[in-house]
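Many groups now describe folds with learned vocabularies. In that spirit, our science desk offers one protein's residues alongside their backbone shape tokens.
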Amino acid sequence: MTRGRPPQKGLDEAIPVAKLRGSILHFKQVEECAADFEILSADRIIIVRVKRTRRLHCSIPEIEKQFSEPILRLRSLPASAFLYRELWVWSQYATWRFFRLLDAGIVEIDCYGGLRVHPVTELVVTAKPIPRKNVG
């Protein structure tokens, strides 16, 4: 269950970032809605959920645990080569992190939707592999 009011301040700050990527279509803020808005660009549709956190600088597994409910709701929407699901997380200090949800995990992206390269390792963060089941 989602607690509290919709993150209006976060939504207000997210819209200029979203407009860099395309046209915006706002969703009505109701409890059943999995996303806050969608971005329509020439080659894709991006469904976005904005969430606020006090603990922004943590690992991807911690983000997955902290935002398990909105992630599950976004994953309930079908993904395709043209439809992306993203979680945008912001802190009270107007700092943002952006994540693309895959069926097998999440990857961190930059504000333009490109994969984020971490400066410490200079490696691209990738999704967790899907474990194989033994058939036999």
